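Narrative of activities, Objective 1.

The group set out to show that a structural description can be obtained from nothing but a protein's sequence at a throughput compatible with the screening campaign. Below is one input-output pair from the validation batch, recorded exactly as produced.
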Amino acid sequence: MHTFPDPSEPKFVAEGEHPLWDAALATVNRDLAVTLPDQEPLRLVACPGWEDDEELLYVALHSGESHGNFLGPETTPDGALAVVAEAAQDTVMEMLWQVWPVCTLHGLGMHVAEDGGRASWWCAGTSRPADPAHTRAAVGELDTIHRPRRPNRKRRKPR
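Output recorded for this entry:
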């Protein structure tokens, strides 16, 4: 007996099938690895589109679960990076139920914005003038894990 693939099920995209999206996802996965080290890398999945023989690409967890918009037509490398970063953020936040990425200065979720022609993680800051909005890092260049403040934690004395 033959079983046919379910057309509504996503399929994993082979590496190299979409080089521009692959490169953008590799850059975003660097941020994921630094900020959520226990999380496996994100992957591209393809789902059937509305037209015959059309496939729509999504950014998914390693398991194949995804959330959010499809990637759309390929674009420039900088444009692709911004699109993939936003798609990755949607998938991580909705599937894992957590804010990602988080600004280590303010404890707030960040958003993708353009800064100097580069896709970057932008933090809105706080309403206090001393904590203004700022660009935290270019996408792919986050370097620290967010650890929530623990105000009641006792500090260890140096030995």
